[in-house]
Write a structure and sequence with these properties.
The chain is α/β, with parallel strands linked by helices. Helix content is 42%, strand content 16%. It has two domains: 185 residues, 3-Layer(aba) Sandwich (Rossmann fold); 75 residues, rRNA adenine dimethylase, C-terminal domain (Helicase, Ruva Protein, domain 3). It starts with 9 loop residues before the first helix and ends in a 20-residue tail after the last helix.
Length: 326
C-alpha cells in the first residue's frame, strides 16, 4: 500500500517562515528609519549617552503593554531617542513628557510630535528633571515612568527615582540583564550586594522579559531585561536610613571580611562596642556581611542607634555603591 505524504505540517511551516521573514523585514525597516533620522541631522549614536536604539516594533508594543498605563495617567519617558516607544505610550495616557538629553534628537522629536497634543518633548537631563514639578503641574499625586535607559547611568537614575518616590507610582525600565540579576539577587550569591539592598529598601522589582542584544542598534555587548519598579509606600524594615546604608556599604566594600571587622571600620568604634551591638542584634559577628538579609542589617543598625552612635551628615545615601564601585 502506498502511503500518502503527510502534508499537515506544511502550512504551519510556511506560515512560520513568512512571519519570521516579515519580522526581519520590519526590524530592518526600523533600523533604517533610525539611521536615516540620525543621518539627516548629522548625528550618530553617542556612546557617552549610552545610545542603543530599540529596533523591534513588536517588542515596543509588548513594552507598552507591560506598562499597564491608564487613560488618565501622566507619564514620563526617559530617553525617548528616535521615538520607538513614544507614540505607543502617548496613545494610552492623558499626557506624556519625554525627556531627551541629545539636542539633535530632541529637535527631531519636537518636529515628529508637533501635531500630537498628548506629547511634550523636554530637552534635558533626567538626572536634573523634577518629577515632583510634573505631578504638581498636572494636578496628580502619582506619575508613571518608562524608559530604555543608558546602562552607564542606571544606578543614578534609580537614585533619582527613589529621591522623588513620593510622586512615582511605578517605573518600567530596560536595563542590562546582569544589572537586573543583581537587583534580584539572594543573600550569599555572587550577585548580591549593596545595590540589591538599596533597591529592595525602596521598591519591589518584577522582571518582565529579556531582550536580546540584536533587538538594538547599535548592538550592545549584552542582553537587556525589562523590569517593573514598584515604589514602596514605606520601607520594609525599620532602621535609621543613613546608618543602615553606612553598615551595608562597609560590609560589601570588604565582603570577604567578618562583620567584627567591617562594623568596626564602618562605625569607627572599639571592639567592645561592636561585640555589644552584635549581641543585642542577635547576629553572629563571625559571619560575612554578604550573607545577611536586609532585616538582619536593620537589626544591626537599630542596635547601633540605640547606643547613641551618631554618623556624619555628609555621608549621603549612595547606597548603590558596593565593592566593585558600580
Amino acid at each position: 500500500m502506498t502511503r500518502k505524504p503527510n502534508l499537515g505540517s506544511r502550512p504551519s511551516q510556511a506560515s512560520s517562515y513568512i512571519r519570521e521573514r516579515a519580522q526581519r523585514e520590519t526590524e530592518v525597516g526600523e533600523a533604517r528609519r533610525v539611521k536615516d533620522v540620525l543621518a539627516a541631522r548629522g548625528l550618530s549614536p553617542r556612546k557617552r549617552f549610552g545610545q542603543n536604539f530599540l529596533i523591534q516594533p513588536d517588542l515596543c508594543q509588548r513594552i507598552a503593554d507591560h506598562c499597564h498605563l491608564r487613560e488618565d495617567d501622566i507619564a514620563v519617558e526617559i530617553g525617548p531617542g528616535a521615538g520607538a516607544l513614544t507614540n505607543r505610550i502617548a496613545s494610552r495616557v492623558q499626557k506624556l513628557i519625554a525627556v531627551e538629553k541629545d539636542m539633535g534628537l530632541a529637535e527631531y522629536l519636537r518636529e515628529e510630535f508637533a501635531e500630537h497634543p498628548r506629547v511634550e518633548i523636554v530637552e534635558g537631563d533626567f538626572l536634573e528633571f523634577s518629577l515632583t514639578a510634573v505631578a504638581e503641574k498636572h494636578g496628580v499625586n502619582k506619575i508613571a515612568v518608562v524608559g530604555n535607559i543608558p546602562y552607564n547611568i542606571t544606578t543614578p537614575i534609580l537614585e533619582r527615582l527613589f529621591e522623588q518616590r513620593a510622586v512615582v507610582r511605578s517605573a518600567v525600565l530596560l536595563v542590562q540583564k546582569e544589572y537586573a540579576q543583581r537587583l534580584a539577587a539572594a543573600a550569599g550569591s555572587p550577585e548580591y550586594g549593596a545595590l540589591t539592598l538599596f533597591a529592595r529598601y525602596h521598591a519591589l522589582l518584577e522582571p518582565l522579559m529579556t531582550l536580546k542584544a540584536a533587538s538594538f542598534w547599535p548592538r550592545p555587548d549584552v542582553d537587556s531585561m525589562l523590569v517593573r519598579v514598584m515604589i514602596r509606600e514605606k520601607p520594609p524594615v525599620e532602621a535609621p536610613e543613613k546608618l543602615l546604608f553606612r553598615i551595608i556599604r562597609a560590609s560589601f566594600q570588604q565582603r570577604r571580611k567578618q562583620l567584627t571587622s567591617t562594623l568596626a571600620n564602618a562605625l569607627g568604634r572599639e571592639s567592645e562596642f561592636v561585640a555589644a551591638v552584635g549581641a543585642q542584634a542577635n547576629i553572629d559577628l563571625k559571619r560575612r556581611g554578604e550573607t545577611l538579609t536586609l532585616e538582619e542589617f536593620a537589626r544591626l543598625a537599630r542596635a547601633v542607634d540605640s547606643r547613641g552612635h551618631v554618623i556624619a551628615d555628609d555621608l549621603g545615601l549612595d547606597g548603590a555603591d558596593d565593592e566593585d564601585g558600580r
